[in-house]
Amino acid sequence: MVVPAHPARLKQLRNILTKVFLQFISIQLEPICYIILSLALLLRLRIKGQRKIRVLLGYYLLSAAGLSYASWLVFDNLNSGASNNWIYNLLILPAMLAIGYYFHQTFTGKISRHLSMALVAVNLIYSGLRNLTYTRIIIFDSVGYSLLSISVSMLCFAYFYQLLRNVNENKLWADFDFWIVSSMLLYFLGGFFIFLFYNILDSNTYEERELLSILWSVHNVLLFLSSLIMLYGCIWINYRNRS
Asked: What secondary structure, in 3-state letters, does 5-30 show?
């Protein structure tokens, strides 16, 4: 005879599973997303090797490694008080340089190329000024990530404007750049609002820390959807090329 589980135990088990799932979303999912993005670019390089893809791949691999270590520091923080914010801050410049180079190589017009160079310069100037005037690297650079996000979003819109001027349905879906930029736009446009308000919230109370955890979980879900878009585009193009 099977003895039914006690309702209190079922509730406790459900709470534990929910906590583990939310912890996975807010902590472990992020480096996994960058591994997926790297895999998509590696698959693309097997078909067509391009320097701009290699540069982007280098950034994604660096992020996967850095954020894997950052995830480990979250658990280590419970014992040692170590912070992982410095890792995120160090990844801002590689992100802008790699993405800026990618768009510069993708754009066909002079104005768009100058825009990519100008936005990279703006981010470099901000980073330099911040390092000179604000030495606390352990504080998450919310402004820096907001600037990065709005810069990349502008480059994405410039790419789609370029695409609309030369509309070709077959070329659109078969162009891997379309999937890369769509992936970036989803993540950076959504992430802009998260980054913008992230440091406004304080983390002194349990409720505020929980709210920050939920906010970062939304960020990671956006990144996960972004990685799936790029991987799907790569698989779809490879499939069409073989058929």
From this structure: CCHHHHHHHHHHHHHHHHHHHHHHHH
Joined together, the tokens standing for residue 35 give 């591994």
Q: How far apart are CA 156 and CA 103, in angstroms?
A: 8
With beta carbons less than 8 A apart as the criterion, state whether 217 and 26 touch: yes
pTM of the model: 0.88
Tokens representing 27 are 């902590």
**Residues 74-117 pLDDT 10s:** 876 554 556 788 899 999 999 999 999 999 999 999 999 999 99
- φ/ψ of 83, rounded to 5, equals -110, 150
Cα 229 from Cα 89, distance rounded (Å): 26
Nearest of 226, 229, 146, 148 to residue 187 by alpha carbon: 226
Q: Taking CA 30 as the corner, what is the angle to CA 24 and CA 31, rounded to the nearest 5 degrees?
A: 110
Q: How far apart are the first and last CA of the chain?
A: 56
